[in-house]
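Q: Given only this backbone (97 positions), what sequence would you predict?
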C-alpha cells in the first residue's frame, strides 16, 4: 500500500507556493491544491492523493503518475523544473504495476 502524506517533511519556508487545479484519476472532484515550487512531482502526487485515497477511493499497492497537458512528468523533478504554473491543470493517476 502506498504511504500517503498530506504534509511534506520540509519546512514551508523553503519554497514558493503554487496553487494548482488537480484531478485524481477516477475521482469526481476537482481539487484546488497548494504545492511548493520546490516539491518534487512525487510530493505533488502525494498531496493530491491525500485528499482522495482512503476517502473516495480505496488505497492500492501502486505509485502515482502525474501529467500536465498529456505530458507525463518524471517523479523526481521539482514543480518549478516541470514548468507548472499557478492554476495549471494537473492530473494524478495510479501508476501501472
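A: Predicted residues:
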Amino acid at each position: 500500500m502506498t504511504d500517503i502524506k498530506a504534509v511534506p517533511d520540509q519546512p514551508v519556508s523553503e519554497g514558493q507556493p503554487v496553487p494548482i487545479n488537480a484531478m485524481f484519476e477516477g475521482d469526481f472532484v476537482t481539487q484546488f491544491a497548494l504545492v511548493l515550487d520546490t516539491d518534487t512531482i512525487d510530493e505533488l502526487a502525494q498531496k493530491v492523493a491525500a485528499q482522495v485515497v482512503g476517502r473516495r477511493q480505496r488505497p492500492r499497492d501502486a505509485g502515482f503518475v502525474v501529467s500536465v497537458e498529456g505530458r507525463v512528468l518524471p517523479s523526481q523533478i521539482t514543480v518549478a523544473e516541470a514548468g507548472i504554473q499557478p492554476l495549471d491543470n494537473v492530473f494524478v493517476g495510479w501508476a501501472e504495476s
